[in-house]
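Database export, one record per block. Field names are fixed; values are copied verbatim from the stored entry.
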Amino acid sequence: MKKFCENCGKEFICTHNEKCWCVNYLISHKLSLYLKKNFNDCLCPDCLKWYIDNDKHGRRVNDN
């Protein structure tokens, strides 16, 4: 499904299931609460990655 990022407005695809690109990311509890409070829908890959990279508790699944 086509969506538009609430943060930057960029169009992206969200499958909203276990095969979606976002399942490759781990989000800290603190960041999850922040995102839920400030956004009503999904963020694009670039914005989600930015929030994770700038959250000291977040990390990508494939990072070692």
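Remark 1: The beta strands are 2-4, 11-13, 25-26, 59-60.
Remark 2: The two ends are 31 Å apart (CA to CA).
End of record.
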